[in-house]
Amino acid sequence: MDTASMKRALFPVALCLSGVALIPALGQAADSGYNIWTNEYTVSRQQLQSAIAPQFPRKLRYMDIFDVTLSNPRLGMLPADNRMNTVVDAQIANPLLLQRPVNAVLTLSSAFKYDPATRSLRLDAPKVDKVDSSDLPPQYAQQLTALGNAAADQFLRDYALYTFKPEQLQMNGKRFEPGKITVEQDAVKVEIKEK
User: Fold this and answer.
1) CA angle at residue 46 from 92 to 14, to 5 degrees?
2) For 11-47, what is each residue's pLDDT tens digit?
3) Domain 47-161, CATH 3.40.50.720 — does that match?
4) What sign does the CA torsion over 34, 40, 45, 50 have?
5) Residue range(s) of every CATH 3.15.10.40 domain in the chain
6) Per-residue pLDDT tens digits for 96-109
7) What is the annotated signal peptide range for this record (predicted)?
């Protein structure tokens, strides 16, 4: 069945959904789905938040002297940059160098990529965009940024946020694969194209 025939066959289903062309995939939350009119699969910001939340709180070691705890992730979308941002609370401790733990807020951003081997949407090129801390003088911002970049690279690079099920990429004997990934205000849209 070609794309035009598939759209005609699914038109009544779309009408039953009150004009909304979003068809949830099997086993997925209702806020995600395949849009037959645009050949895109949508993953909502809420789904992405749910996927990254299990990574926190996260304890890391930096340069074998600092203990870093990252917690309370808050996701946002950066459509203009085609990236997602994550704001996290950070606590840095070292009993030998610091009298008390240092608290900071890190704003990290990351692009997306598709990994065909695992059929997953993954984070790509994470980096620290901003560091806020009232516990440290401004001259330490560079070191805190370096620490944040190390932390981002250690646990966000290649992190799988969404995995497509095989049936989501097959229809009527044809195989499909994700293409262009576009970040929007409340979701990530993934183009689905025939192999």
Assistant:
1) 165
2) 333 322 222 222 223 233 334 576 666 778 898 999 9
3) no
4) positive
5) 47-161
6) 877 888 899 999 99
7) 1-29
